[in-house]
Amino acid sequence: MVDNLPALSQLYDATSSQSEHLLGFPLGFIFEERAYVYNHVNIYLDYHKVDRADLDTGTSEDQYRIVKFVVEPMSIHHSFKPIATPDDDAILHANERVAKLSNPIASCNYKVTESLRRHTSIDMVRSPIGDGTHSGLLQKASRHMLFTYDVIWKENTDVPWSSRWDMYLDLQGAVNYGGVSHWVSVSNSITMVILLSVSVVLLLVRNLRSDYHLYCRCSTDEELQDKDELKNCARGWHNISYDVFRAPPHYLLLSVLCGTGLQIVCMMLLAVIFAMLGTFSLDERDSLAMVLISLYGCMGYIAGYFTGYIYKSFNGKSLYKAAAVLSTGFPSLVFVIVALMNVIARKQNHISIPFFSLLNYLLMWLGLSSPLVFLGSWKGFKARGFAYPVNINWIPRDIPHQPLLMNSTVTSYFSSLIPFGVCFYEVMNIMTSVWVDEYYYTFGFLALTVVSLLLTSSQMTVFMNYQYLKSEDYRWWWRSFIAGAFSAIHVFVYALYYSTKLEESKNAVTDIYYYGYMTLACLALGLGLGTFSLMSSLYFNQLLYKVYISRCLELS
């Protein structure tokens, strides 16, 4: 790693007589069941002069930045005799050699003056050169080997600082996000969204037209004598019009979850937009985490306002209790889990989050997010609340017996399969980026996937919500939230499977980190999708009964 740039290895392909670049640095290779070691590297460092306008204030010296870091590995068999052994604490000076070569290549031949020696090239290794003593053999893996390196500096005026990552993103060896498979996956997701949207709209329009025609008209004498017609009119979503907007059980908890979910959705959308604008650098993941936490804290006012607004709609009375739970619920859970993982990592001498970073996050939570949550809750509670098109009966209506297929677990499972299928490929790429330390840069694809995920989740939830109402089951508040959040369970199950594909860790802290952070990520995803799905069902229900009441009034 040089100036936050990882090494690109430049390998020579003897069959095509061309060189190719790969991410990382190979230590050797196996040929004909023998192991060979790359014991020499050429380190190419390209630098770019910083413009005067971008220089740090208070300095007049020229500054340079590394814009390219390439390592060219080679395997060179050196016949040598050790002179000094650094492992035995021998004092080595800059001009002192550690070994005497009996078959030096041109770059290591000290019989030639330094001004005439050239840097090591592939031509020196492929054939005998110099005085004919070098045999061009490769270095086999053995106990005693000589490692050498060359450093080649070059000023590169064609690659500015802002474009130094372009070479990494174009590599086949980096994360293959820009390939055909990614385009195919996004195209399939968009096609699935379009087909699902058309199907849901056609089904709902067809059924609602029939329902409005059946429920919003005066029956004739012949229809009143028709038992099948009377049976159809006696059962349907119009019978629960005075119960459909009844406050659900544990509505304070639902209000808090919806506020937290909206806060996460806003944070996620803004983060994707900033990433598309090039705000994030691929080599600064700590700053990315800081930006996400800052966005979450700034969205506290929106979360508080929405929680107070929906809590007022449920005729809630304990506003400050709801605001306190919203302010301390999800953030405290995240902080406690991260702090515990950090303590375990420190005890095991593992890499951990610095104490002052945790303190900074704590201060941002208590000093920024919490005050905004209380302020937003107060303003939201002062608002009118949702305007329901019908009144609510004091006595709840009995819910008819529901078939097994209308069980909330069954419907949530099947309705969340399509949203999970839409985001599956992008989830796989993001997990590869996070846990295999690859580079993720296709934020445009991510934005399309996020929009597709929200649309498919809301459409499937609205359709299942209509089925609940049609069977005279008005318990749609929690079911709509759970149906949207269920996609996160599919993601967590995939995370469990993905852990089996990762390199087996010998340190338990690594597993704790993986399962801890994936649990938090899936929880945040579930809260966001659940909130968006619930709001979609609420808007659909308001529109459904508003049209129904208006048509009934026209008849009267």
What's the short version?
With 556 residues, the protein is of the alpha/beta class. It contains 15 helices and 9 strands. The N and C termini lie far apart (78 Å).
Polypeptide structure, described:
The chain is 54% helix and 10% strand. The chain is elongated. It has 15 helices and 9 strands. It is of the alpha/beta class and 556 residues long. The strands form 3 sheets. A 5-stranded mixed sheet has the order 2-1-6-5-9, with no helix packed on it. It has a two-stranded antiparallel sheet with strand order 3-4. The model is unreliable at 88-94, 128-135 and 172-178 (pLDDT under 50). The longest helix has 48 residues, at 508-555.
Task: Identify the notable features of this structure and list them briefly.
two-stranded antiparallel sheet; 9 strands; 54% helix; 556 residues; alpha/beta
Topology:
Blueprint: E1 8-13, E2 18-23, E3 28-31, E4 34-37, E5 40-49, E6 64-74, E7 80-82, E8 99-101, H1 122-126, E9 148-155, H2 166-169, H3 180-215, H4 221-225, H5 227-234, H6 251-276, H7 285-298, H8 300-313, H9 319-347, H10 355-382, H11 408-415, H12 417-435, H13 443-470, H14 476-501, H15 508-555
Parallel strand pairs: 1-6, 5-9
Antiparallel strand pairs: 1-2, 3-4, 5-6, 7-8
Helix pairs in contact: 3-12, 3-13, 6-7, 6-8, 6-9, 6-13, 6-15, 7-10, 8-9, 8-10, 9-10, 9-15, 11-14, 12-13, 12-14, 13-14, 13-15, 14-15
